[in-house]
């Protein structure tokens, strides 16, 4: 039974997962090595709870209980020593994830399940650095976590049936639907999303249509809730580029990153988090 969840990484996904887990009744420890990241995550979570009370999405008692369920840490060993489930939400870089999983394997209790929130990478490769590959799995959440209803569950080569079932139960308690995906680079959603977004970038570069009209066409013509360029800005263009490079390396030419994406990242135009990407957010 999962009572305590440790979330590793206080960025956009980590704080979203921590918020959702705490609101769902889990005891949650959010860990990041950066004091600044932890401070920003705490502020974000408390502001979101208060805003959702004001809007009537949750009751004030729920918000207070969620705050009580949450604690914050910079020391990874302390954060995971009593946990039942760890969800790693660090940068989408294999070297970083493997380094974290080695520490998790050393410091987390023997019964703890180790999950990665990777959107593209191999849970088998990540699990191989541990002594518990049967208890390792990928849980791919979507941004913003508190609104998006899906979690992709990806088995590694050695992931046990019991690990899959426990993770599905956790997702259900968080109010999420799940799909079980066989391991392959990009899984289901990232493969499709990266292709659509990359083609939108190529069309922009070729002068087919403006940013606004490309997004409008997909929203109104194909019933997408967000346009692909707006979504890329939300995800972060640096994150999207890392995903594209990983898929290009493993799946070939059709995932070659659009030159305009590479150019924007080099220029520091990373989307909403930097104030400018395909859209300008400086005056919003």
What does the model show?
- This protein is of the alpha/beta class.
- It contains twelve helices and eight strands.
- The chain has helices spanning 12-23, 35-54, 60-69, 76-80, 94-107, 123-127, 161-173, 189-206, 211-221, 228-235, 237-251, 259-266, and strands spanning 4-8, 27-31, 70-73, 85-88, 113-116, 136-140, 150-155, 177-181.
- Strands 3-2-1-4-5-6-7-8 form an eight-stranded mixed β-sheet, with helices on both faces.
- α2 (35-54) runs antiparallel to α3, α8 crosses α10 and α8 crosses α11.
- The termini are far apart.
- 43% of the residues are buried.
- The model has no long low-confidence stretch (mean pLDDT 96).
Largest sheet: 8 strands, mixed
Detail the poorly predicted runs: none
Tally the beta strands.
Answer: 8
Q: Distance N terminus to C terminus?
A: 44 Å
Computed over alpha carbons, the radius of gyration is: 19 Å
Shape type? globular
User: Structural class, from secondary structure content?
Assistant: alpha/beta
Q: What is the strand content? A: 5-15%
Give the SSE order as H and E letters: EHEHHEHEHEHEEHEHHHHH
Discrete helix count: 12
User: What order do the strands of the largest sheet run in, or round the barrel if closed?
Assistant: 3-2-1-4-5-6-7-8
Mean pLDDT rating: 96
| Helical residues, percent | 40-55%
């Amino acid at each position: 039974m999962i009572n305590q969840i440790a979330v590793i990484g206080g960025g956009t996904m980590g704080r979203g997962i921590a918020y959702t887990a705490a609101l769902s009744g889990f005891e949650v420890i959010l860990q990041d090595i950066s004091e600044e990241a932890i401070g920003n995550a705490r502020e974000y979570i408390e502001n979101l709870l208060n805003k959702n009370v004001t809007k009537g999405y949750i009751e004030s008692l729920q918000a207070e209980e969620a705050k009580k369920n949450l604690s914050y840490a910079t020391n990874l060993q302390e954060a995971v020593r009593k946990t039942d489930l760890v969800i790693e939400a660090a940068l989408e870089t294999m070297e970083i994830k493997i380094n974290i999983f080695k520490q998790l394997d050393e410091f987390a209790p023997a019964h703890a399940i180790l999950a990665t929130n990777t959107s593209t990478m191999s849970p088998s490769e990540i699990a191989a650095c541990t002594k518990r590959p049967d208890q390792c799995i990928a849980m791919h959440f979507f941004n913003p976590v508190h609104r998006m209803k899906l979690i992709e569950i990806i088995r590694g080569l050695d992931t046990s049936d019991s690990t899959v079932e426990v993770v599905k139960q956790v997702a259900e308690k968080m109010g999420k639907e799940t799909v079980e995906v066989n391991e392959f680079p990009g899984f289901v959603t990232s493969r499709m999303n990266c292709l659509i977004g990359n083609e939108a970038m190529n069309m922009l570069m070729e002068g087919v249509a403006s940013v606004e009209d490309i997004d409008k066409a997909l929203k109104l013509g194909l019933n997408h809730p967000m346009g692909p360029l707006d979504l890329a800005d939300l995800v972060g263009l640096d994150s999207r580029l890392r995903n594209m490079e990983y898929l290009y390396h493993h799946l070939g030419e059709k995932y070659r990153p659009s030159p305009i994406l590479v150019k924007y990242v080099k220029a520091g135009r990373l989307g909403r988090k930097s104030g400018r990407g395909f859209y300008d957010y400086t005056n919003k």
